[in-house]
Amino acid sequence: MPKSRIRKKADYTPPPAKQATAIKLNSRSWVAPVMLAMFLIGLAWIVLFYVTDGKLPIDSLDNWNIVVGFGFIAAGFGVSTQWK
Fold this sequence. Notes:
This protein has helices spanning about 30-50, 65-80.
């Protein structure tokens, strides 16, 4: 019986290494502190309103103080969209 031919496999060559691309960073270092500050101001506004039975932060706003507090929190979420 004739002997079959042996196929030679090519040696494994790893794919070429990818070149590191430079990451372009914009100056957005202000976003995180402003976002956290807005969250904390809004939370403190609402907590202060409840703790003082509506006397503080602004007495004439009555229950609208809650809306102001949530407005600060919403502004914090708005600022968070700028974070990269």
